[in-house]
Design goal:
mainly alpha; 65 residues; DNA binding; single chain; 58% helix
Amino acid sequence: MTNNIRTLRFLANEMTQAELGQRVGLTRQTIAAVEAGKYSPSLETAFRIAEVFGKPLEEVFRWEG
């Protein structure tokens, strides 16, 4: 699974990983792992991340199977 979190954070006034983590209930380290594609968030968390950026889920995460 790939994602656009880094780009979306930059476009959201350069939001930090820690700020995003606080908004969705994750640590900065977990956000970093999700962003790097090393960890897949739960579906609920993925929706929360998308909601922070005001984007539909498929604009934040992509499945490349």
